[in-house]
Amino acid sequence: MHVAAPRRRAAAVAAGLGCLVLPLVASGPKAVASPPLAAGTMAAAPYEYLGWGNPQKPTDVMAATGVKWFTLAFILSDGGCNPKWDGSRALTGGSDQSAINAIRGAGGDVVISVGGWSGNKLGEKCSSASALAGAYQKVIDAYHLKALDIDIENTEFSNATVRKRVVDALKIVKTNNPGIVTYVTMGTTPTGPDANGKDLIKKGAAAGLANDGWVVMPFDFGGHSGSMGSATVSALEGLKAAVKSAYGYGDDTAYRHIGVSSMNGKTDEAGETVTTGDFQTILGYAKQHHIARYSFWSVNRDRQCGSGGSGDSCSGVSQAPYAFTKIVVQYTG
Asked: Fewer CB under 10 Å: which end of the chain, C or N?
């Protein structure tokens, strides 16, 4: 067991980590303009965490893999109901904005992820759904976003009051931003969402939230049978059943409202490894059912470890650079 917060979910809390991004982006942020629609698809938008794990320059990743969309992590509370990168860096005017400008300048675009495992959560710090929606809106307005990911974990996920607050806030966001795509990302068991996850989906349906993708993270299982690819398929089938039941969807519609965010290579659990073969299994499933999203944690880790390499910046398995990204980018919805 890892004593520290899991790598997939850990959010940087030291403000000094923000300096890791500075060499990776152009100097001097430009004003944020409404971007043209990027090539590629937001359905394949792997996570990159620019404040953590010696991140690669996003435009280099784009050139090497053909990926166009990134999910950038994480927006947290600054201690109150106010969003900041890692809870410490301003939304605009800094290195994060410069990185987004560079991605868009190269023909790409971004989904921004709110939450993660560690740090202060907006869902808990904002006292009402309307206040939380206002915090989400600040992020949307800062970057003229087409898509927003709520990565609901840890205490934010386990609290029924907060789960409802998140759902109700997202409904306000969908009303106020016609056409915006929303994802809700959560942990899972090998057979699908746990009781908290099922409750979250039911709350969404009861509130009339037209969420585009209910997304599970099929790793850190605490035990599973078979390959991680087959365990992921099992988890997704359980998710599809939960979404179908809550919303009254038919099978095809239910599949189109689920998604997956895997983890590449060694996970936070000893003996649990997700291989490129597992990613191919997931890709086949995604293509068969036209799921809403195929992502993974993370681009930062999509390279082989060197001597003394850290799991925060490499996969822990033998691989070619960007082997996992190159599989995910084949998914087009």
From this structure: N
